[in-house]
Amino acid sequence: MSNLVSIRDFEEHAYKTLPRNALDYYRSGAGQQTTLKHNRQAFSKYRLRPRCLRNVENRDLSTTILGERITMPIGISPTAMQKMAHPEGECANARAAQAMGTIFTLSTLSTSSIEEVAQAAPRAVKWFQLYIYKDRELTRQLVERAERAGFKALVLTVDAPLFGLRLADIKNRFILPPHLCLANFEGTKSKGMSKKTDSSGLNVYVNSLFDSTVEWKDIAWLKSITSLPIVLKGILTAEDAVLGVQNGASAILVSNHGARQVDGTPASIEALPEIARAVGDRAEVYLDGGITDGTEVLKALAMGAKMVFMGRPALWGLVQGGEDGVKKVLTIIRTEFETALGICGCCRLSDIEPTMVVHESFYAK
Ligand code: FNR
C-alpha cells in the first residue's frame, strides 16, 4: 500500500482488482456520465487565493457537526453493498471512520446490518441513510433500529424518487452476488434482488419497493417517528434547501448522488454557493461529489460547506485493505487538506474566508 499516495492511486488499483460487475456498479454515473466527469472537473474551475505570513504553526482541523465533535470536516457518504469491495464491507469502513474520529454513514442498502455496524464501531459517530419504502412499517422499523443502535442522525435521500439509469449496470444485468444480501432486511422479502431481469436488478428492486409518492409533507411523518436530526441528502437548488429548512431539516447535504441519478445536473460544487446563501445559519450545509483531493475540501469549505463527504474513495480504500485501506485514504486526504489549509494561511476551519476561493473568471477580467 506504501506506493499508493493519492486517492487516484487507490482508484487505479481498484480498477485493476475488482470484478467487472462490482467495478461498474461502483464507478458508474447515470446516462452519458457528463455530470460524473463534471463533478471532478468543476473543482478546477475554482482557484485558491492563499494568504501569507499568518503564523500557521498550530493547526486544528476539528469541528462540531450536529453537536458531535469530530477530528476533521471529511466524512464517509453512504454507498450500498460494500461487501463487494471487501468481505468486512461496511463494518471495516465504519471502524476506519472510528479510528480517524469522523462520521460514517450507513446505507439502507448495506450488506452489513445496522446492528453489526454498531457493534463493529461502537465509538464512531454513525449516521443512517434512509430510503422510504412503500411499506411504511418496514421503514419505521429501520428508523427505530438505527436510533436504538446509537446512530446520531438520519440522512434522508431525497434525490431518488426513481433510480437513475446507469447503463453499465443495465448491460451487466447487475445483481448482488449470491453469497451476499441486503442485511437490514434479513428474513423479509426485501432482502435480495430478482435474478430474472433484463435490466439492472437494483433498479427493478428499487422501483418495486421504494415509495415514489414521497412529498415534503412526509418529512413531518419522519419527524413524528424519530427524535434524531434529519439531514436531507441530494439537494441541488436553493428552493429545495429553503423548503428543507422550513420542513425542519437540521442539515442539507448538497449532492447529486455521485452523478448517479440524472445526467446533466450541476456538479455539487457548482450548486453549493446558491444553497449556502439561501440556508445561511438556519441549518448546517455539507457537500459530497467528486472530492478526491484535500484542496477540494478547502474550496468546498470556503464556498459555504461545513463539512464534506466522500463515497467512492472509501470504496477504493476498502478494496485495497479493508479498514486499513480506508484509514489510509482518509489519512491522505486529511494531510492534503491540512497542508492546503496551512499554506493558504489558516490554522482553524474558522479562519477560512470566502475570499480565499474565486471562480476562474476572476482572473480573466
Ligand atoms: C452511492 N450513493 C448512495 N447514496 C445514498 O443516499 N444511498 C446509497 O445507498 C448510495 N449508494 C451508492 C453506491 C455507490 C457505489 C456510489 C458510488 C454512490 C451516493 C453517495 O452517497 C454519494 O452521494 C456519492 O458517492 C458522492 O460522490 P463521490 O464521493 O463518490 O464522488
UniProtKB/TrEMBL annotation:
It is an enzyme of class 1 (oxidoreductase). The active site is at H257. The lineage of its organism: Eukaryota, Metazoa, Ecdysozoa, Arthropoda, Hexapoda. It comes from Phaedon cochleariae (Mustard beetle). InterPro entries: Aldolase_TIM, Alpha-hydoxy_acid_DH_FMN, FMN-dep_DH, FMN_HAD, FMN_hydac_DH_AS. This is (S)-2-hydroxy-acid oxidase. One of its GO terms (molecular function) is (S)-2-hydroxy-acid oxidase activity. FMN binds at P78, T79, A80, S107, Q129, T157, K233, S255, G311, R312. Pfam families: FMN_dh. Its EC number is 1.1.3.15. Its cofactor is FMN. It comes from the Eukaryota. Residues 1-362 form the FMN hydroxy acid dehydrogenase domain. It catalyses: a (2S)-2-hydroxycarboxylate + O2 = a 2-oxocarboxylate + H2O2; 2-hydroxyoctanoate + O2 = 2-oxooctanoate + H2O2. Keywords: Flavoprotein, FMN, Oxidoreductase. Belongs to the FMN-dependent alpha-hydroxy acid dehydrogenase family. GO terms for cellular component: peroxisomal matrix. One of its GO terms (biological process) is fatty acid alpha-oxidation. Glyoxylate binds at Y25, Y131, R166, H257, R260.
